[in-house]
Amino acid sequence: MNSLTIIILAVVGGVLLFTLFIYNSLIQARLRVKEAFSQIDVQLKRRTDLIPNLIETVKGYAKHEKETFTKVTELRTSLINAKSPEKKAEVNNMLTDALKSIFAVAENYPQLRASENFKALQEELEDTENKIAYSRQFYNSVVLDYNTKLQVFPNVLFARLLNFKPAEFFGATTDEKKPVKVSF
Amino acid sequence: MFLFVVFITTLIYVFSKAMGLGLGVVGIALIFSGIASIGSYYYSDKLVLVTTGARKIEKSDNPRYFRIVENLCIAAGLPMPKVYLIDDPSPNAFATGRDPKHAVVCATTGLLSMMTDAELEGVIAHELSHIKNFDIRLAGVLAILVGFVAIASDIFIRATFFSRSDRNNSNAVFFLIAIAFAILSPIAATLIQLAVSRKREFLADASGVLLTRYPDGLASALEKLKNDHTPPRSASNATAHLFIENPFENKKVKNFFTSLFNTHPPLDERIKILRGM
Prior knowledge:
Chain B: This is Protease HtpX homolog. Chain B: Keywords: Cell membrane, Hydrolase, Membrane, Metal-binding, Metalloprotease, Protease, Transmembrane, Transmembrane helix, Zinc. Chain B: Its main location: membrane. Chain A: It is a single-pass membrane protein. The complex is a heterodimer of chains A (184) and B (277). Chain A has 184 residues and is mostly helical. Chain A has a domain at 29-137: de novo design (two linked rop proteins) (Up-down Bundle), CATH 1.20.1440.20. Chain A is built from 6 helices and no strands. Chain A has helices at residues 3-61, 66-81, 85-106, 110-114, 116-151, 155-161. Chain A starts with a helix and ends in a 23-residue tail after the last helix. Chain B has one domain (1-162, 170-276). In chain B, strand 3 (93-96) and strand 4 form a beta hairpin. Chains A and B meet through helix 1 and helix 5 of A and helix 3 of B.
């Protein structure tokens, strides 16, 4: 074995090791993104679980607001069925708006507003809303880390080769960044 | 931190030169201070909670406080810490625990009643940032190093008294320097430890704001703390560095010397930086 072969072998070995290192760090970052997204999912799930209760409660007092109820129920179903982060974010934003209209309806029914059950649900939903916002903030910062990792120099050479795709941000409308504040 | 490593290395060098036997003794000092500090490191959370009289709360006990901790943990990607409350009208908060999995967040009832939601979020985010930045661990390592310096100096001074006769071979200049070091270094080590502690406060302010995205929340909380003069009941000198503001801050004495011995940077400076964000 002459010295040239040794040098070539060393270089090849070095490149392999380097690739392995990059690969592992990318995998780790991608798992973090996944984990952060499941955090959002937990909160979205909690939200969809609360909605039927809310509708039942409101229905007891405001029978004539069928349209609002159907809209919320529909959106709830499509949120449960949504798969991609993009779709989830979109439906979630629409659901937020629809929920606002439910709380607007509630304004017209003093008895409903006074109900303990309604108050508790409203508080829970507000809390969930905040938690969605916070988990989205965390998710987006993790996605930013991951996407940056994909695009910085030596990684960008390997990322495409190893089939890593940039992750999507979980979008929010500017309006939706504020929690639902219902004034009585 | 870098400063500290340089400092310690110089110290070891001077001592070993002066004593002509050196590193073995230095090792012993490190082991001693290590054992003492590791103990306090593992039990610090329990110890602190007992000395401050904090009690653990569940969500139903104080939903507002609990929820803020929950939300910010989600934003920081931290596991949920244990939440404690101290019955004390003086507003303050601290975090402890050796890593995020063993973390404790603690606030006084005074803090909860005095702050608005946004301000409380700022304060809690600051505390969670201490957890996230492993400041408790850093403080533990610093305590080991400071303890090491103290013990090493002590050993050196004792050794020079007992082995005066066969000292001709070692360098006389080094010997003098070493004596000066032995006397001054424990003080210097403490000062460096405090300086690091102050730097970490600024860092926690900044990363706390990264969580809430609302610097004014923490800034106005600190302003409220500045204007508050309720005497604290639960803090002692030993636990002062843990809190969000120094519970013993004497507002009248503000010269260079006292500011060297503070665990926390002055509130005015922190507020100024936050307002500038």
